UniProtKB/TrEMBL annotation:
InterPro entries: NAD(P)H_nitroreductase (IPR052530), Nitroreductase (IPR029479), Nitroreductase-like (IPR000415), YdjA-like (IPR026021). Its cofactor is FMN. CDD domains: YdjA-like. Keywords: Flavoprotein, FMN, NAD, NADP, Oxidoreductase. Belongs to the nitroreductase family. The keyword NADP applies. It comes from Parapedobacter indicus. It comes from the Bacteria. GO terms for molecular function: oxidoreductase activity. This is Nitroreductase.
Amino acid sequence: MQNTTYESIKQVIKQRRAVFPPSYTGQEIPKSLLIELLECANTAPTHKLTQPWRFIVFRENGLAKLANQLAEQYKTYTPSEQFLQKKYENTREKVLQSGAVIAISVFYSDALPRWEELAATACAVQNLWLAAAAAGIGGYWSSPGTVKYMGDFLTLAANEECLGFFYMGYHDEPAREASRKSILEKIRWEE
């Protein structure tokens, strides 16, 4: 007998893809669902239960604030000879096309090596991503070069670092599996 929970989880994992804002439908993501998705993120594994992940959710009017901030940072920190007006506009537009954008940060406890806190935060984002995919919400994790300048805007603590943004939106893209090399090429057995 097949375990339906296993089969469902396996399907969600295999069909989770990056889905970008131009594919979002504009349908609002209810705040209650965002909380449920973040509760899934909150169940990530964490050494010594430091739970280093932190999230700031931008939705509704908050999206415009974030869009303006990211665009202005791009303009401020990009050398004039590399600045592209189209990228400036796209930086704003992809935020405004989203149902929500979540700033992802890590809170370093100093109880563990930083890589462990980063790994735990990445696990939390993966949980969020899988839960969102199962709910029919597309997303992707973006870490623009200007992310290092977000501390003041996000009012981060001295021992907190922004790792990027998780863009989210309902979409109508068909489900598809990952294009990956065979796992057999990535395993070495010691038996």
